[in-house]
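Whiteboard transcription, Tuesday session. T.W. wrote the structure tokens on the left side:
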């Protein structure tokens, strides 16, 4: 059974260095590193950055059945500008991943037996790729995993509403959860901190409103929580802080990948949450979202075997 991953593959352009990224591509690369059957459906340009992305397909021995090449549009690119001690990220418009071809995508989907279907919101900023997503969802009975990944200024509430309704399992971080509370539960940050019971009630309301199998909330170093349709709540707090943190880029993608891996391998929910937490923490100890050294994965595979 294959996990299908749909969405953007791009490069973060630091000027002197280009680093391959995009949440869906990060998820697919992690899955490939653990030898989990996966299919990434995306679109890149016939350019230098596209060659860099293609090189990652080869490095992770990923199937190219879902890789589309656009002869006109450029490979997705995010310009990273240094501002003082921080950075500003400019997600450029009109990139190849905005024009994913539906016929090619459906043909790729038909080559696998899909058990899970991962998607996000950034790829839905354009009508072309958004329509392709819905065509794919209509074409597969696979369980739908939405990694919300809100990007301010690029995604509106309507897109979130439609995506939540299309999903079976939704993963959000605490900031994204606050947005959902404001839109659908009439709970604003200005209302003050919520009591734990109020948070559980609000999350249960979201699960019911969107007919979800479950809602996953990542809590950073404090762990993660699962709110199930059957009322089950699992809060996993055993998430030791890494000895040192290089950056948190890609931690959420790492969590999503391991949760999906656990689903494919039949891990109990508690185990999947624990292992996703631990792996996401480990990714925070390296530079970037995906390790350069493939040996990074070996100890995790040995530990989970």
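and on the right, the sequence the group agreed on:
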């Amino acid at each position: 059974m294959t996990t299908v991953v749909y969405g953007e593959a791009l490069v973060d352009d630091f000027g002197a260095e280009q680093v391959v990224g995009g949440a869906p591509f990060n998820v697919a690369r992690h899955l490939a590193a653990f030898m989990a059957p996966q299919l990434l459906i995306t679109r890149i340009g016939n350019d230098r950055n596209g060659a860099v992305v293609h090189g990652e397909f080869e490095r992770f021995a990923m199937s190219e059945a879902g890789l589309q090449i656009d002869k006109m549009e450029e490979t997705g690119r995010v310009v990273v500008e240094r501002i003082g001690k921080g950075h500003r990220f400019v997600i450029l418009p009109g990139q190849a991943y905005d024009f994913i071809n539906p016929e090619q995508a459906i043909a790729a989907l038909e080559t696998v037996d899909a058990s899970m279907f991962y998607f996000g919101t950034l790829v839905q900023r354009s009508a072309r790729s958004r329509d392709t997503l819905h065509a794919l969802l209509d074409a597969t009975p696979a369980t739908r995993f939405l990694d919300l990944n809100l990007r301010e200024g690029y995604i509106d509430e309507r897109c979130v509403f439609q995506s939540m309704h299309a999903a079976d399992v939704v993963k959000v971080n605490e900031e994204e959860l606050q947005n959902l509370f404001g839109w659908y539960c009439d709970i604003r940050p200005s209302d003050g901190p919520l009591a734990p019971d109020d948070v559980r009630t609000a999350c249960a309301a979201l699960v019911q409103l969107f007919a979800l199998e479950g809602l996953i909330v990542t809590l950073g170093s404090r762990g993660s929580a699962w709110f199930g349709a059957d009322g089950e709540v699992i809060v996993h707090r055993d998430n030791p802080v890494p000895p040192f943190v290089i950056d948190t880029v890609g931690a959420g993608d790492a969590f999503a990948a391991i949760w999906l891996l656990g689903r494919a391998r039949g891990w109990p929910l508690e185990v999947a949450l624990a292992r996703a937490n631990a792996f996401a923490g480990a990714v925070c100890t390296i530079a970037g979202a995906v390790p350069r050294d493939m040996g990074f994965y070996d100890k995790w595979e040995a530990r989970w075997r």
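Someone added at the bottom: The mean pLDDT is 93.
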